[in-house]
Write a structure and sequence with these properties.
The complex is a heterodimer of chains A (336) and B (283).
Chain A lengths: L4 H6 L20 E3 L1 H12 L3 E5 L9 H6 L4 E3 L4 H13 L3 E7 H7 L1 H9 L6 E5 L16 H6 L5 E3 L4 H13 L4 E5 L3 E3 L15 E4 L4 E5 L2 H15 L4 E5 L2 E3 L3 H8 L5 E9 L4 H12 L5 E6 L9 H7 L4 H11 L1
Parallel strand pairs in A: 2-3, 2-4, 4-5, 5-7, 6-7, 10-11, 10-13, 13-14
Antiparallel strand pairs in A: 1-8, 6-12, 9-11
Chain B lengths: L1 H31 L1 E2 L1 H18 L14 E4 L5 H10 L40 H14 L6 E6 L6 H12 L5 E7 L8 H4 L5 H7 L3 E6 L3 H13 L6 E6 L7 H4 L7 E2 L2 H13 L4
Parallel strand pairs in B: 2-3, 3-4, 4-6, 5-6
Antiparallel strand pairs in B: 1-7
The chains are: A alpha/beta (336), B alpha/beta (283).
């Protein structure tokens, strides 16, 4: 198993950790603290209908920023995800717009029926923001939400968003508030990397965006994998591989037009990269779209394997499961 | 006490309402030849008091902002609620014969998107009380005087989410929640108390900070008094009415059926059921 770049460079053995909250920021990377919490405060200043709710994870979903600013618009529901989402539905029924937070594992696995029946089926205006998406915790399967996108994609009425960085999260908060209906968004919390501002990127709900164009391979990615794809593309350029990166933050509804247009450009291999099991996420969503539309490029998937993932340090695990920058570049080179 | 006296004076009217709810439910059951008839018969008295004594609503405007909300957590009791909604004029009586049929607004399990006056989609059990908590919080935020009524079944006490909601309503001191649990001691696999012991229920609910009353849910006077006390209770605590009821109430041959969680009735028995109901009718 390889160790990570920075540790190699300094020559010091870096202690690895399987901590629940591990930073996804690389050493030296630009970050912003709690972008979700600050954006929600900003939104709540404009909109009195915004409510913050959590299930004993206010501090760990950056909702404490909101709670400090608007204590009377904040509901602590205790360590109980069913009542969290049931009560969010009730508040939405009375005209409020709850932002309900927990970890992605608990929303997707523990409270699925509550979200399905009380929120999605009744098309209630609840925004679900969930930390530790995919493999962003080294704590083992109890906290690794490898299948959340598959589950929420399958739920009718649900809009599903997988943001890349702090710059994007800041824009997603007002965008989902302007949209009326249930939304599941993955949440990066704590010190969150800032990447997309360099690309003059603007989030639009339901829209994919070409962040970088290239002739040899089209990487279609969401979430933190867009960050990895951009780094991998820079690496690949050194090997004279010209990689394009199409960022697809809205997993559902999928931006079919943009994906078909870009994937249909002849000669480019399509590689979908996601921080999620290869089953039922962005990769299979794109594959299904291409097949149904008669667009048949060479197609590969980068994602987490269909197995219970190990506990360990994130850099180690990202390497092991093929979603680190080095592994993304290596796999693409092998396929080309 | 004055309101109780007034209610007692109105009791014949409520008895008539309860009778009509039972009759409507039997007629709907006849359409499909089966259904949760025994539950509809047991809860008819509570629904009569809720819709014709306790709650504020406008039949012509089921979404009226000032209405009291009624959440049917046990979606399979839909036949009972439809019977009440028809009696209340919220659903036209002509739709009764469409019960459970394709394209009907009255599906066998209650869903908000289908039926006027239906506030939630039940079916999956243990959801209602949690939605009630959110609605009650929302109504308090709006300084609304509307109450959130929630009906759920003793079998639903098996669901952990019900206890999450009971704990939460107690924590937030939601005085605008009036929950009714139908204790008919019958769930899918048998007597509720044997499937999963839930007694002593009153003690448990009180320990969670609720104002609790236990009544004979088929005694109209007792039910009226319980709704009165729940509404006039001055402490900011959620209110629970534990209503002990009899499955099949009002139709003796259904009361005596051993397996009455989901009833199949032979075609000739529907007339018998109506006849028995009619024979036991109070003046």
């Amino acid at each position: 198993m390889k160790t990570t770049g920075p540790a190699m460079q300094t020559g010091k053995p870096r202690l690895t950790t399987s901590a629940m909250i591990a930073s996804i920021a690389a050493e030296g990377q630009r970050t912003k603290p709690a972008p979700f919490g600050h954006a929600l405060v900003e939104l709540a200043r404009q909109r009195p209908d915004v409510i913050g709710m959590t299930a004993d994870l206010g501090k760990y979903t950056d909702l404490h920023i909101f709670a400090q600013e608007f204590p009377d618009r904040y509901y602590q529901m205790g360590m109980a995800e069913q009542i969290l989402f049931g009560a969010a539905s009730g508040l939405a029924a009375e005209g409020f717009m709850p932002f309900a937070t927990t970890y992605a594992v608990f929303a997707s696995r523990r409270a699925y029926d509550f979200i399905h029946q009380t929120i999605a089926e009744e098309d209630r205006n609840v925004k679900i923001a969930c930390a530790l998406p995919g493999l962003t915790s080294g704590y083992g399967p109890s906290h690794q939400a490898a299948e959340d996108l598959a589950l929420f994609r399958a739920m009718p009425n649900m809009t599903v968003i997988d943001p890349c960085d702090a710059h994007e999260i800041e824009q997603i908060v007002p965008a989902v508030a302007a949209y009326r209906g249930p939304v599941y968004m993955r949440l990066l919390r704590g010190q969150v990397p800032v990447v997309l501002d360099e690309y003059d990127y603007k989030f639009e709900l339901g829209k994919a965006a070409m962040i970088r164009d290239g002739w040899d391979v089209l990487i279609i990615s969401s979430g933190i994998m867009t960050m990895r794809a951009l780094e991998a593309a820079r690496k690949l350029a050194g090997d004279r591989v010209d990689a394009a990166v199409l960022h697809v933050p809205t997993i559902k509804p999928l931006d079919a037009n943009t994906i078909l247009r870009e994937a249909g450009k002849s000669g480019r291999m399509v590689v979908v990269a996601e921080n999620h099991t290869v089953i039922g996420g962005l990769g299979e969503a794109v594959a299904g779209l291409l097949m149904r539309s008669g667009v048949h490029p060479a197609f590969r998937q980068i994602g987490l394997p269909d197995e219970f993932l190990a506990a360990g340090a994130l850099p180690t695990l990202h390497d092991r499961y093929g979603i680190s920058t080095a592994e993304v570049a290596r796999q693409i080179k092998r396929w080309l | 006490m004055e309101t109780v006296a007034k209610a007692l004076a109105n009791a014949p009217t409520l008895a008539q309402r309860a009778h009509n709810i039972r009759r409507n439910a039997i007629r709907m059951g006849e359409v499909q030849g089966q259904g949760y008839i025994a539950q509809a018969l047991d809860i008819a008295d509570v629904l009569a008091v809720a819709y014709f004594y306790a709650m504020r609503y406008r039949p012509e405007d089921p979404a009226w902002e000032e209405r009291d909300r009624f959440l049917l957590s046990n979606g399979h009791y839909a036949i009972a609620l439809y019977a009440a909604l028809i009696e209340a004029g919220i659903v036209p009586e002509a739709e009764l014969e469409s019960y459970g049929s394709d394209e009907s607004r009255l599906p066998m399990s209650g869903m908000a998107s289908y039926t006027p006056g239906m506030e939630m989609s039940g079916g999956s059990l243990g959801l209602g009380l949690s939605i009630a908590v959110g609605m009650a919080l929302g109504l308090k935020r709006k300084n609304s005087n509307a109450q959130v009524y929630t009906l759920f079944s003793d079998g639903e006490l098996d669901e952990g989410s019900v206890w999450e909601a009971i704990m939460s309503a107690g924590h937030y001191r939601l005085g605008n929640v009036i929950a009714i649990v139908d204790v008919n001691n019958q769930q899918a696999d048998g007597p509720s108390t044997q499937v999963m012991a839930f007694e002593p229920l009153v003690d448990k609910l009180q320990a969670f900070g609720w104002f609790v009353q236990r009544v004979d849910g088929n005694n109209l006077d007792a039910v009226v008094a319980a709704f009165d006390a729940a509404k006039s209770h001055t402490e900011s605590r959620p209110r629970m009415i534990v209503a002990d009821t009899l499955m099949g109430k009002g139709v003796p041959f259904l009361e005596q059926r051993e397996k009455n969680h989901f009833i199949r009735v032979e075609p000739h028995e529907w007339q018998l059921a109506l006849a028995e109901l009619e024979a036991g009718r109070q003046p």
